[in-house]
Amino acid sequence: MHLGMIGLGRMGGNMAERLRRGGHTVVGYERHPGKRDVDSLEELVERLEHPRVAWVMVPAGGPTRETIHRLGELLEPGDIVIDGGNSHYVEDQKHGAELAAKGIGFVDVGVSGGVWGLQNGYALMVGGADEYVAQLMPIFETLKPEGDYGFVHAGAAGAGHFVKMVHNGIEYGMMQAFGEGYELIAASDLVTNVPDTFRSWKEGTVIRSWLLDLMVRALDEDPELSEIRGFAQDSGEGRWTVQAAVDHAVPMPTISAALFARFASRQDDSPAMKVVAALRNQFGGHAVESAKGADSPGADVTPPQT
């Protein structure tokens, strides 16, 4: 297929590359010169084949709203806009309605995979009308991992980002549990080999997982996590998950506590939050704060070549 990718950062750039490797033609636009194929949204739209497909991968909030609004002015009936960023699902519903009034399709895609997605594929959580999703399936098939998993058409517009929001809330809880377990083991006088303890859990246990593998990798690089500060930002999706739980009267103590722990990390240098910060760096390339006081990219997040 032929599509435009707007936003060629850590995620968008790798997604564009995976699509090109899969035989698709991608026209990329980035505000900053260097990576982009065109110099403006207008030029990007002109370069696309009909019906046009424009995938937006820019920061949520104002940048996404502005980009989608501008695309609504440039595109024509029958074209499709994809929002693949971390937008709030409520925003998707507004964008879908605004574009539908112009005959333009809208699909929201929650994307998970971080810096490993180029190599391993991206988990895609999709919301939108059946006809648009069906039209875009060749793109989704290339981006997702090989096999039966890694893709869901979750429902109407907004459903993709809703389930991605919950996915990230679950991620908060899992990382917090690993962090608290690490802190307790490290505090014990009985355990003298903390990294190998977690390494031993990679096989044969019920908590074996990709997050555990990444934690072992982080401990291999910094066994006492002494090079980073126990500070972890929240992306916003954890807050939205907790708010949605309140809106639907769904009890969510674990995810709520994990979100509040991130707030606490901004006040105290917590060993548990060192693990959360290290894991965010490992799977997503998120910057960590150095224990020495300066921001640092932290661990090498380049996926190993196989």
Task: Explain the overall architecture.
It comes from Actinomadura craniellae. One of its GO terms (biological process) is pentose-phosphate shunt. InterPro entries: 3-OH-isobutyrate_DH-rel_CS, 6-PGluconate_DH-like_C_sf, 6DGDH_YqeC, 6PGD_dom2, 6PGDH_C, 6PGDH_NADP-bd, HIBADH-related, NAD(P)-bd_dom_sf. The relative contact order is 0.10. The chain folds into two domains: about 160 residues, NAD(P)-binding Rossmann-like Domain (Rossmann fold, 3-Layer(aba) Sandwich), CATH 3.40.50; about 130 residues, Orthogonal Bundle (N-(1-d-carboxylethyl)-l-norvaline Dehydrogenase, domain 2), CATH 1.10.1040.10. The protein has about 300 residues and is α/β, with parallel strands linked by helices. Helix 9 packs across helix 12. It contains twelve helices and nine strands. Helix content is about 50%, strand content about 15%. The radius of gyration is 20 Å and the shape is elongated. It has a seven-stranded mixed sheet, sandwiched between helices. It has a two-stranded antiparallel ribbon with strand order 8-9. The C terminus is likely disordered. Strand 8 and strand 9 form a beta hairpin. The longest helix has 29 residues.
